[in-house]
Amino acid sequence: MTDTIALVLAAGKGTRLPGAVPKQYRDLGGEPVLRRTLRAFAAHARVDAVRVVYDPADSELYAAATHGMALLEPVAGGRERQDSVRRGLESLEALKPKRVLIHDGARPFASADLIDRMIAALDDGPAAIAAIPVTDTLWREADKAADALVPRDKLWRAQTPQAFRYTDILAAHRAAEGLALTDDAAVARHAGMKVSLVMASESNFKITTEEDLARASRDMARGDIRMGTGFDVHKFGPGDGVWLCGVKVPHESGLDGHSDADVGLHALTDALLGAICEADIGAHFPPSDPQWRGASSDRFLAHAAKLIRARGGEIRHVDVTLICERPKVGPHRDAMRARIAEILAIDVSRVSVKATTTEGLGFTGRREGIAAQAAATVALP
């Protein structure tokens, strides 16, 4: 049985945010809004799978937005949001999840901490919603004028994700078919379920208008910008080539190391870990552990990237400098950049690989080994 699946709703057309494409496919910082939304769940350690409910008419947009992501096959939505959720839930029956998180595709800033707390809330009840208390004064309108104050005590504004025990919310949606209920919490309440409130954040807003999209762009540009650095050294040993930045480069020697001794990827892994204060590569993959003997270093780099994305972070730029007299790096530079971009799932335009020598000085000048230094820029929410 699968523990937790995220069901992301992306079948709407977003009429309040007009444009050539629906809002979930609009560009946000160089990526579609939907891709950013999905990444928060796909990278989360406690989310086993992600399924999108979409409009098949947007299949090309969906394919472009989700390229390279490990997702369940999407399912077609219905006429109304409630229909789309029910169809999405029914499509999960064969997987038999214990829990389901239902989330808006145009709400791209759900944090890893919020997802954790939503899942944990189901330990104590069948349903929970992310929400924030109302702080503004509320007026009821009559004839386009302020008519009466509405007490704001104990009023909350609902967000997503909304979390449910799967069998309970599936039965509730089937029982509510044909009713016009505003969200899944309303469906759960209609079925008699207690719905817990989980404190969310103003930053977890839904992109509904052009102003929201502009706000999202500003928030991303501001963010918490971190930089990490890394350094690694390996000496030459027997072999017929060296692994550098994920590429096998022919050479008269190999590099000695517990794994594949890829100094470029090792330095870059430490740079990414340093940006989020997660110790170093040895703490995550101890050289004393035999399971890492001869391991491909792309596993280490992918692990660091996953930790960043689990926090809702984004890798903005990476830069690796290889320090050696031989082999020549220039002929392989483009392949190295492409491989790093592939491992990190970022555009190659955000990857720099350089090489230099020490003019015959030191151990690299004596051609005893290769060193690498790296820098990485990471944005956290």
| Neighbour order of strands in the largest sheet | 5-4-1-6-10-7-11
Q: Mind telling me the CATH superfamily name of the largest domain?
A: Spore Coat Polysaccharide Biosynthesis Protein SpsA, Chain A
Q: So how many helices?
A: 12
CATH topology-level name of the largest domain: Spore Coat Polysaccharide Biosynthesis Protein SpsA, Chain A
Instruction: Let me know the number of strands.
Output: 18
| Outline | elongated
Instruction: Give the fraction of residues assigned to helices.
Output: 25-40%
Task: Give the N-to-C terminal Cα separation.
Answer: 33 Å
SSE run? EEEHEHEHEHEEEEHHEHEEEEHHHEHEHE
Structure classification: alpha/beta
Our Rg estimate from Cα atoms comes to 25 Å
CATH class of the largest domain: Alpha Beta
Beta-strand residue percentage:
25-35%
Count of all domains: 2
Q: How does the major sheet shape up?
A: 7 strands, mixed
Q: Architecture of the largest domain, according to CATH?
A: Alpha-Beta Complex
Arithmetic mean of pLDDT: 93
